[in-house]
What does this fold into?
Amino acid sequence: MPESITKSIDIAAPVERVWDALISHEKFGTWFRVALDQPFVVGQPSTGHMTYPGYQDYRWEARIVAIEPMRRFAYEWPATGGDKELVESGVPVLEWTLVEFLLEPTGNGTRLTVTESGFDKVPEPRRSDVMRSNDGGWTEQVQNIRAYVEG
It folds into this structure.
């Protein structure tokens, strides 16, 4: 079983516009459907809550790992996979995965590649559930950012 999820999408917009949609916490929040409490700063936590219907009571928690302008944005977050019981249990999630957004210019715009890795730290059977949930989530999110940036 693979230990990471990778999604790539071509966006008909310059790297600068895609980068802005990633790195501005307000714009990120619009397409990702999360209300963030503060701007992204390397080494600092990112907090807020989801605004996606049905998940509004979910807290957003992440640790910003990298902001490499026009190239790479990365954070770690708890490996919950949207498991409502786990989130509501209040039990801290000890396993965190790494999410990386990589940008590369293409002839017509930008290729965005999102990779989430570190699932090997999550014990089974939760690992399979988290990976399945997040795989579907990333399929939707790359479409969301493309629609947001191109729209």
